[in-house]
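Team,

Forwarding the record for the chain on the shared tracking sheet. I've put the sequence and predicted structure together so nobody has to dig through attachments.
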Amino acid sequence: MLFNSLHFLLFFPVFCFLYLRVPKQHQWKILVAGGYYFYGNFSPFFAIILFVITCNDFLAGKMMDKESLQQHKKKWLLLSMAGNLGILFTFKYLDFVDNNIRELLSVFHIGWFVPEPLFNNWIVPVGVSFLTFQSLSYTIDVYKGVTKAEQHFGYFASFTAFWPVMVNGPIERAKNLLPQIKEEHRFDYDRIRNGLFRIAWGFFKKAVIADRLAFYVDDMYLHYNEISGWTTLIGGLFFFIQVYCDFSGYSDIAIGAAKIIGIDVMENFKRPFFAKNLADFWTRWHISLSTWLTDYVFFYLGAYKASSQKVIFNLIFVLAICGLWHGANWPMVLSFTMVGIFMAIRYWWQSKVVRIIKPSNSYRFFDRYFPNWIHSIITILLFVFCFLLFRVHTAQIAINHLHPLEPVEWASIAKTLYANLFKLNTAGYFHEWILNKGGIQFGVLLFFIFILFLTEAFIGDAKIENIVLAKNKAMRWTIYSLLLLSIVWFGIFNNTSFVYFQY
C-alpha cells in the first residue's frame, strides 16, 4: 500500500479511529492487524515472510533471556542472524550472485549447473532490507544486554509489523518502539495537528518536488549519450534532490502517522545539504541506517580505535556494505564505495597530514580558511559525483526495455555520464531540456526547491511542526493553507512508487 494512494487515504483514518478507541489491552491487536493488512496488501506472500521473521526473532530473544552464559546466547543470536540474513539473501541477492557466477564461469567457458530461469524474476518482498535490519537489531540488543527480551508475542509482533516504518523506514530500535507500544494512546489534539502537518510536509516533498524532478532525471538518464556537461551536472544534482525529497518525504509521512497514534519514531534526516563533509553528511542522511551500520558493524570492526590502515579499510568496507544493502547490483555498490573512499581520504588527511601541519588544531584546519557554505557545496558535489551511479542500473533496464535491439551495459552509461561531467559545455541537450519540459513549470519547480532550502535553513535542527506550532493562529493557518494549496495545485498523484521501495 502506497502512502500516496487512495487506498491509504481510506485505510489511515479507519485505523486511527479503531486504534485510539479500543481499550489499552487490545491496541496491540489493532497494530498487528493494521500492519499485516498494510504489508499484505502488496502481496499475501509478504505477510507470510513477516510472520516467519517475527517468530524466528521472538524465539531467539526468549531463549537468550533464559541463558546465563554468553556463548549459549550466541547460538540463538546466530539463529536469528541466519534467519534474517538468509531471507534477505534468498530474495534479494540470490539472483545477483547467480548471474555473477554465470558471467565469471563464462569467461573460462565453463557451464553453470543451475538452470538459468531458476532464480530469475523472483518477487522481492517490499522493504525486506528494512524489515530484516529492524528485527535483527532487536536480537543483537538482547544479546548485548541493551534491551530485555520481550515475553509477549503480541507486543513483539506489533514491533515488527509497525506499518508506518516497516517498508521504508526509519529503521526503529526495540528499546524505543516497544515501550511506547505498551502504553495507552488516546486522541490528542496537539499530536494529531502536528502529525497531520508533518504528513502534509512529506507529501509536499514527494508530490510537488520529487515527482516533478523525476521528469528531468528520467530524461537525463534516457538520453545520457546526448546531454552536455552542464545537463549532467544539473541532472545529477536534481537526482540528489529527488531522492532526498522522495525518501525524506516518506519518512515525514511515517513520522506524522506514528505521531497521530501517539508514538514517536526517530528522525531519519537532519538537513543533509548543510553537511560540512561526507562524514557529517552520514550523520544527517538516512540516520536510522547510518547509526545501524555504525552500532552493529563499524564499532564491531573497531571504529576509530584501530590503526589508521584498519580505519580506512573499515570506512570503505562499511560503505560498500551500505551500497549492497541498497541494491543487488554493481553500480549501487560502486556508488557507495566511492563515498567510502572519499571519507577514507579525508580521514587520512586529517589524521596524518593536518596533524603534522597544525598539531594543536588539526581538525579545524580547513574551518579557519573556508566558510561553512563552501564545505557544504564541496560535500554536495562529491556526493552528486558518486550518486551518478546510484540509478544507472535501473536506467539500463529502462533503456533496454525501450530499445531491446540495442542492448546497453551499465558500464557504458556510467562511462558516458562521467565523461560528460568533465565537459562543461552548454551545447547539446541543455537548452532543449527546459523548453521540452516547459519553461514555466521549470521555474515553478526551482521556486519550490528554493522554498525547501530556505525552510530547512530557517528551522535548523528543530522539528518543522514545532516551529509552526509556535506561531500565532493567523500565521499557522496561512502556512497550512499555502502548503495544502501547493500540494493540491502542483502535486503529481499518479501512484508513483517511492524510490526506496526497491530496497
